[in-house]
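Same chain as my last thread, 101 residues:
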Amino acid sequence: MTDIAPLAASTRAVFDDPGVHAVVRAGRTVHAVSFGQWVGEEVVPELLCGTGVAGWLPSALAPTRAEVTCARCLRRIGGPGASPHLLPLFDTDSSEDQIGF
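reply #2:
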């Protein structure tokens, strides 16, 4: 059996700074990172939004200092653009667009 403790520790070290976020593989969305249980007692970084990473390996997350762009992560951290409300589909203030019945 392979000891995964060194892999978990090295991955934690990469994301341990509060200013480090993650991109999944070659993705463009920047996610906030939290730490969660991986295998056994090992704790590794995971996406705060809970988005799954198929074939998850710690190396699937690339560190970045770019601002978080994931809407779900932003809602969790209360960041800018974290409005819990949905955007309206139609402008309800314009009388021209309203249908009269």
